[in-house]
TrEMBL record:
It catalyses: GTP + H2O = GDP + phosphate + H(+). It comes from the Eukaryota. GO terms for cellular component: cytoplasm. The keyword Chaperone applies. InterPro entries: CobW-likC_sf, CobW-like_C, CobW/HypB/UreG_nucleotide-bd, P-loop_NTPase, Zinc-reg_GTPase_activator. The keyword Nuclease does not apply. Belongs to the SIMIBI class G3E GTPase family. ZNG1 subfamily. Residues 110-212 form the CobW C-terminal domain. It comes from Dreissena polymorpha. This is CobW C-terminal domain-containing protein. GO terms for molecular function: GTP binding; hydrolase activity. SUPFAM superfamilies: Hypothetical protein YjiA, C-terminal domain (SSF90002). Keywords: Chaperone, GTP-binding, Hydrolase, Nucleotide-binding, Zinc.
Amino acid sequence: MIDAKYSWKYLAEKKEDGSINECTRQIAMADVLIVNKTDLISSDDLHELNNTIRSINMSAKVIETSHAKTDLGDILDLNAYGDLSPARLADTFHGRGFSSSDKHIIDKSVTSLTLEVRGLANQGLLDSFLQNVLWERSLQNSHGDTITLYRLKGVICTGDSQPRCVVQAVQELYDFHPTTPWLPGETRTNILVFIGKNLDRDVLEREFKKCITDIS
């Protein structure tokens, strides 16, 4: 839960060791974010806060409320592995109001980005890619800074006859989970959402594409 009135102070906190502050870290790792006390700030400030949240975690569901009033259906039984219809995917990865041209980022090193590549994913190569990023931290951005992931989620296709597979990662832990089958004629698309520090689209896309065969 995010305190709409006082969250700016915590988001702007600088740590002596250069690591991200706890408020930013929690936003990056969340599936659902509740912005509370919206009645205490202006609509412009709320808009700016939402854009800041989106800059850190574009895939989380954001709920605005006051006095902590929340429908439990919005935060319980999220069904992370269940409904992965095209409409659900569009909502999760594309349709939650993030605007790259209208945002305020306090810590510009903590961002999120989405990669989408058609084709079939080789799970062994994808394992190596994730281990390099999450465990070895061997990838660097164009400025020579280490790419650090705090959260990753996505859907991959490991074969024409295989069901779509959800991949999720939190810091150094990740797993794959088979879910719903692909529909006849449905385009096999691999989507990954990265949330972390010093992200570099070109570097991550280059390494991700090494895991994909039959790229179209």
